Amino acid sequence: MMEFDPLTSRIGCEVRGIELSGSVPPDAVAEIRKALVEHKVLFFRDQHHLTAGEHVAFGRLFGELEIHPFIGANRDHPELIVLNRSPGTESVRSLSPYGEDFWHSDVSWRAEPSFGSILRAKQLPPVGGDTLWADMEAAFHGLSPELQNAVRPLRAIHDFDKAFGAGVTADRKAAMAQKYPPVEHPVVRTHPDTGAPILYVNEPFTSRIVGMDIRESDALLNLLYRQASKPEYQCRLSWRPGTVALWDNRSTQHYACNDIGDGTRIMERVTIVGDRPY
Ligand code: SIN
């Protein structure tokens, strides 16, 4: 039987009593999904047996998996992106002015951004390298009622170019822009399972608010981006070998703390396809 141990009153929960794999039965998957919507990010410790193949198979239990067009993947599993921060390797930061150490919601530049992501620690540094998540439903509710009313009807453009445009050739950028043109999403999306309003703009992928003067748009977006950094909305995970995190990418943002010095940190992630935000 699974046991659920919340980390805070808002976000984060450790789940015990389950061995993750592609063979987790449907009733357990349904229980995990329910807990995910409630706690927004779930942590599973000591999943030492979870191979890359089983990681992918476990992800598929929640839906179709994305292939990331910019971040390199595991050689045998294209759905498994590799986030490698070690001296001399090509980290996301070497491809982009923004790395995982910026608050973000995965692939919000897609018309149908991801439902959730599953991250597994492959190699951890001696110290540092925690990941933080922010509850963007709480962030919305933390705004004054006046600002909530002002931002609710707004829409914003999300575009891969801001984060990944500088790291690719002009030809590839043009091809990617055809495949992934800038998309418009509501600034406040509705969670499809709970109906809750969620603040849905993030610094690496949101470029501007539709119809607003760029100076007003930048000022408002900067204020909204800053909401994720409020400690009261957050939980923080210190990774150990065998730890796996599963998060609801619709209601959270996350931040990988870049404090590992010369250490090596290698993570693998599958990303589950989601719905069009409304
Ligand atoms: C990510 O941004 O998906 C990766 C987070 C991490 O490496 O902790």
Beta content? 25-35%
The N- and C-terminal alpha carbons lie at a distance of: 36 Å
What class, by secondary structure content? alpha+beta
- Sheet with most strands: strand arrangement: 1-2-3-14-6-16-5-4
Name given to the CATH architecture: 4-Layer Sandwich
Low-confidence stretches: none
Number of helices: 8
Biggest sheet record: 8 strands, mixed
Question: What is the CATH topology classification name?
Answer: Double-stranded beta-helix
Annotation, overall tally of beta strands? 16
Name the overall outline.
globular
CATH superfamily: Clavaminate synthase-like
- Oligomeric state, counting identical vs distinct chains: single chain
Bound molecules: succinic acid
Rg estimate, integer Å? 18 Å
- Compute the number of structural domains: 1
* CATH top level assignment: Alpha Beta
Helix and strand succession? EEHEHEEHEEHHEHHEEEEHEEEE
Helix content: 10-25%
Overall residue-averaged pLDDT value: 95
GO molecular function: dioxygenase activity
Domain TauD/TfdA-like: 4-271
Family: Belongs to the TfdA dioxygenase family.
InterPro entries: AtsK-like (IPR051323), TauD-like_sf (IPR042098), TauD/TfdA-like (IPR003819)
